[in-house]
Write a structure and sequence with these properties.
With 557 residues, this protein is of the alpha/beta class. It has 3 domains: 163 residues, Alpha-D-Glucose-1,6-Bisphosphate, subunit A, domain 3 (Alpha-D-Glucose-1,6-Bisphosphate, Chain A, domain 3); 291 residues, no CATH class; 83 residues, Alpha-D-phosphohexomutase, C-terminal domain (TATA-Binding Protein, 2-Layer Sandwich), CATH 3.30.310.50. Helices cover 42% and strands 18% of the residues. It has 19 helices and 19 strands. A hairpin with a 4-residue loop joins strand 16 and strand 17. Helix 3 packs antiparallel against helix 4 and helix 7 packs antiparallel against helix 15. The longest helix is centred in the middle third of the chain and has 20 residues. It is globular, with a radius of gyration of 24 Å. 1,6-di-O-phosphono-alpha-D-glucopyranose (G16) binds next to loops. The site of 1,6-di-O-phosphono-alpha-D-glucopyranose has 18 residues, from loops.
């Protein structure tokens, strides 16, 4: 690297020195997160990483999102979107960590130079690089986006493009689309979502239209970006009467007592909802609109809700997709299947046990990965159709390129032979689904529209959906400890291998509860250990979680 390049890196690092208290950043489950005001150095350095990643990939677009998603409004974070639209390749995380924690400008320079050498990245502007940046609505967002741009610009020749205020999944979608040579503006995103949703509604069987479900849908926008975007386009969404609460335009505080994380964890009515919403189908987004759950308020005198979490969204999608595949393949087909499909279903340890039983009972195998979209997504890519959801509402349905092109030739074959046949329509539904649901990452907005389309297709009310299976009561707790990373887990986080003896204590507690299940793991987004417990009653789940939390507290201090 020439002198100019060295000087540019040193200058950027000098502008944003690491905090004097020696706080360490870790890329974690979803990028770097901390209090917004303290995020400058990590964000600047993530900008450098993103620019180098793009250079490494021959100038393909890479993304940076400034968000702390479901975390409180004072926090902020930074996440790198890889060129395929997914999360940053995991083998670059150690570099991102090392850079974020470099103690001074010289150390930072040395780490970059060494890494560029190892990865064969030419510095000094002879390789091109472009980074698309976006942020959510947090008050520190504008400042941090500017810091990220400075980080990108510290790599000579890299171009930073500010895409503005977006939902996290919109930026993932844009990066993916751009690198595939597809239309990639925000207008294109909205058109694709709106058009494919309309197409799915047009494919609702005529006999189902008769028992048309209530078209009123109330959406909790978590006072974040998702509500704002929905307000922008809701008039163009056919067939639905959408009302947005916590839209992000009013006084409410981001994620505070509202949003998908609150609704799923607390299972009570979020702020911003009133007696007029009782009994209606409600959806809840998180602050950057990459999580989706549904709920219904039971009565105006009760704070409890009926919750439909990510597991039940997954189950609904699974049924819909399987039905379409069955239609295409014909029931009595003894020969080869028309469309042989490798169908994968991926969950994490947080999946409610009743959902996993449900999926197994309908003949599906479920693969488990550790928590974090980056793990689930990678697994889902192995299938023709891979569907993943975390219980907290992060998830999507991935269609392989090969499968989509098979579907395309099948639909044109059907349309020349038997246009309008049930097979033709089923293939069209799957194609429209692959257009609607975000292929880069979980997306509350497009996920919600797929839910709505499937409910219409099935002629199902919210109650029908709830009745798929009954969730086992569960409880989640957080425990603050000295060093959460002293807990090491195995078996997709379902068992602890360190510290010694903890798993035996957990097993001992579980054995006292019918349908008891419990695990602990260090959070990758907060400085806490998470405890999850499930049992046959609320009281039992609460007590199991509490007892295990006490063991964690006692052993880890
Ligand atoms: C992020 C990840 C999710 C994960 C969640 C909680 O969500 O993208 O995959 O489930 O953190 O992770 P942890 O339990 O490790 O703190 P979000 O919505 O905050 O981006």
């Amino acid at each position: 690297a020439g002198g100019d390049q060295r000087a540019a890196l040193l200058a950027a690092a000098t502008l944003f020195p690491p905090p004097p208290d020696g706080a360490r950043f870790s890329y974690g489950t979803a990028g770097f997160r901390a209090e917004g005001a303290a995020m400058g150095p990590a964000v600047c350095r993530a900008g450098v990483v993103a620019a180098l990643r793009s250079a490494k990939l021959g100038g393909a677009a890479v993304g940076v999102v400034i968000t702390a998603s479901h975390n409180p409004v004072r926090d902020n974070g930074v996440k790198i979107v890889d060129a395929d639209g997914g999360m940053l390749s995991q083998d670059w995380e150690p570099f991102a960590d090392a850079l974020a924690n470099a103690p001074n400008p010289d150390a930072l320079l040395q780490i970059v130079l060494q890494f560029a050498k190892d990865e064969d990245i030419k510095l000094g502007g002879s390789q091109s690089a472009q980074v698309l940046l976006a942020r959510d609505t947090r008050p520190t967002g504008e400042y941090l986006l500017d810091v990220a741009v400075k980080g990108v610009n510290a790599v000579i020749g890299a171009v930073a493009v500010d895409m503005g205020i977006l939902t996290t999944p919109q930026l993932h979608w844009m990066v993916r689309s751009k690198n595939k040579g597809l239309k990639s503006s925000e207008t294109d995103y909205f058109s694709q979502v709106i058009d494919s949703f309309r197409c799915l509604l047009e494919l609702v069987p005529k006999d189902k239209e008769a028992d048309a479900i209530n078209n009123r849908l109330i959406v909790d926008g978590a006072n974040g970006i998702g509500g704002l975007k929905l307000e922008e386009i809701k008039a163009k969404i056919s067939g639905l009467d959408i009302h947005v609460r916590n839209s992000g335009k009013g006084e409410g505080i981001l994620n505070e007592s509202c949003g998908a994380d609150f609704v799923q964890k607390e299972k009570v009515v979020p702020l911003g909802f009133g007696p007029e919403d009782v009994g209606f189908r409600c959806a809840s987004f998180d602050g950057d609109a990459d999580r989706l759950v549904y709920f219904r308020i039971v009565s105006s005198s009760d704070t409890r809700i009926d919750l439909v979490d990510g597991d039940k969204i997954l189950s609904l999608f699974v049924l819909f997709i399987r039905e379409q595949l069955d239609i295409i393949n014909g029931k009595d087909n003894k020969g080869n299947e028309v469309l042989p499909t490798r169908f994968g279903v991926i969950q994490t340890a947080y999946a409610n046990g009743a959902s996993t039983d449900f999926l197994k009972n309908i003949g599906l195998e479920v693969v488990f990965t550790p928590t974090g979209v980056k793990y689930l997504h990678k697994e889902a890519l192995k299938y023709d159709i891979g569907i993943y959801f975390e219980a907290n509402g992060h998830g999507t349905v991935l269609f392989s390129d090969h499968f989509v092109s098979q579907l395309e030739s099948l639909t044109s074959e059907f349309s020349s032979k038997a246009a309008g046949s049930s097979q033709h329509q089923a293939a069209m539904r799957l194609l429209a689904t692959s257009q609607l649901i975000n292929q880069a990452v979980g997306d509350a907005l497009s996920g919600m529209l797929l839910v709505e389309a499937v409910l219409q297709y099935k002629g199902w009310s919210f109650q029908n959906w709830c009745d798929l299976y009954t969730d086992l009561p569960s409880r989640q707790l957080k425990v603050k400890v000295q060093d959460r990373n002293s807990i090491v887990t195995t078996d997709a986080e379902r068992r602890v291998c360190q510290p010694n003896g903890l798993q035996e204590l957990i097993d001992g507690e579980i054995s006292n509860y019918s349908h008891g299940r419990c695990f602990v793991r260090p959070s990758g987004t907060e400085d806490v250990v998470r405890v999850y417990a499930e049992a046959s009653s609320e009281e039992a789940a609460d007590s199991l979680a509490k007892r295990v939390a006490q063991h964690v507290e006692r052993i880890l201090g």
